[in-house]
Amino acid sequence: MSLSQKSVNTLDKAARHPVFDDFQHFIDQLQDMSNQCSADLTADDICHFSSDRKQLSMSLKQPFGKGRMELLQLPSGFSIGRSDYFLNYPLQSHYRYLSDQLGFGLMLSGSFGLAVPELHLSDQVEAGEIWVRKGQAEDICATQFSGKRVCGVSLDLSAQMLEVWREEAPCRLKKSLGRHSTAPDCFRYGVVTAEIRKLAMKMLACPTTSLCSRLEYESLGLSLLAWLLNPGEKGSGMTAVEKRHARQKRLISQAIEILHEEWRTPPTIHELACRVGMNECYLKSGFKEVTGLTIEAYVRSLRMEQARLLMSTQGYTVQQAALEVGFSNQSHFSSAFSEHFGYRPSQITRKKTLSFS
């Protein structure tokens, strides 16, 4: 039996929560990829799959990859997903999202390419970012890279929860949560702060094998959701210093969005500070605190990730990728690429050539 058949049979028995469809789409792509890698691989060779009525989990096996993904639907309709894995082969997934639910995705490590043609969206989801999605999208393309650890948490709200939260939602979500809004939406919502990361890491480590542990897991998820839906100062009991820090983090989030949109010709630090309304020194120090990188290093990492994406998924040569991301000197590009990833860009193009030989 294929992975797809296994998952369909299991999900037919389950509550068919819309978020579970994402899990099945990923499994379908694993099956397709295994056929490309080796005709001898069976479903059981690729992963261990288990489920009950409200929970799905999958553990990847070598040589395909290693790690675990889990999705748990709670009685309230609130769904929590968590993942910590890496793939030994790049994977490009196409799927549909047919739900009006609101979902948050927190990227703790790793990155992947994201494209939603009907939204004119083509971007890279990076570590330290929080994304929001809502509505029915007919074609979503996710490009995952090989050898890169992917670690994250997802939260999806049921229709009932949306009604409760609608009036108190942050301004950035008001449009998506409008009562008559059925249009799909997907956008970068913010950054993973130290407080949010602490909660997310606890969720990754929390067992869900008993009733008490699932209650703790749900409590952590709701606490994380409260942070995401109520990031403002009013009624939060924050001190003046905490309010100032919260404002700075929101401005840094805006700066990160600008860099993702304009990485080919990024603004200077002075220009960036003026556009988000921050002091240059605060911007530089706060940016490094949030992302772990200087602004220059962050832009360089965006260029490197884009270059790898072009070579691994679109067949660009090393020279073509270098020119596309702003390097006129191929040698300088190769050195920067090797420093960032730990291997030469030619290894990607050579591996891709061998896979077609």
TrEMBL record:
SMART domains: HTH_ARAC
HTH araC/xylS-type domain residues: 253-351
Domain of life: Bacteria
InterPro entries: Homeodomain-like_sf, HTH_AraC, PchR_regulatory_protein, Tscrpt_reg_AraC-type_HTH
Transport listed as a keyword: no
Keyword DNA-binding on entry: yes
Molecular function in Gene Ontology: DNA-binding transcription factor activity; sequence-specific DNA binding
Protein keywords: DNA-binding, Transcription, Transcription regulation
Pfam family, one: HTH_18
Protein name according to UniProt: HTH araC/xylS-type domain-containing protein
Species this protein is from: Oceanospirillum linum
